[in-house]
Amino acid sequence: MKKIFLSSLVAAGFLFFNAQAHAAATPDLAGNDYTIYMFCLKDVGDYCEKNKLEVDTFSFDKDSFSIKYFEDDDWRLAGNVGYSSSGNTFDASYTATKDISITGITKYKYTFKINGFIPVDNILLGSINIEYKEKKLPGDDTDESGQAFFLGIKD
Fold first, then answer.
1. How many CB atoms lie within 10 A of CB 141?
2. How far apart are CA 149 and CA 126, in angstroms?
3. What is the pLDDT of residues 85-119, one digit of tens each?
4. Closest Cα to residue 9, out of 129, 130, 150, 117?
5. Other CB atoms closer than 10 Å to residue 44's CB: what's the count?
6. What HEC string does the chain produce?
């Protein structure tokens, strides 16, 4: 089932990419939200579970990019957050942290590097590199990284 999903995702990507290459208009991400269906290849924190289809929302504004999962009051943005697009491709980066309220020390940190392409105006295809860090007792920190592939559909 997993191989069929990934094969379908790749095949659809190539079909849409080739079809879009002949289109005159360049898709614009600004002001759009996309429901993202991602398939994680490895466990990464609580956000991404290996071999499970996860659902989230990516929001693209004129000058910013956000991931709905991290819009909770406990999470805050850190570092480089944003996106750039050129033609039918885009890159985005996003870092979210959660602190321990008593000490103010960062306990959890997710960093995302997203690469994708826009085969047609309402579809995104791509991959996400995810890093997760969790501070625990000294010498017992968690450091995980993994990759996910995604299909995004404009809301």
1. 10
2. 6
3. 888 999 999 999 988 766 656 688 999 999 999 99
4. 150
5. 22
6. CHHHHHHHHHHHHHHHHHHHCCCCCCCCCCCEEEEEEEEECCCECCCECCCCEEEEEEEECCCCEEEHHHCCCCEEECCCCEEEEECCEEEEEEEEEEECCCCCCEEEEEEEEEEEEEEECCEEEEEEEEEEEECCCCCCCEEEEEEEEEEEEEC
- Please report, for the chain, the start and end positions of each structural domain, with discontinuous segments joined by +: 2-23+31-154
Judge whether residue 9 has pLDDT over 60: no
Name residue 111's amino acid: T
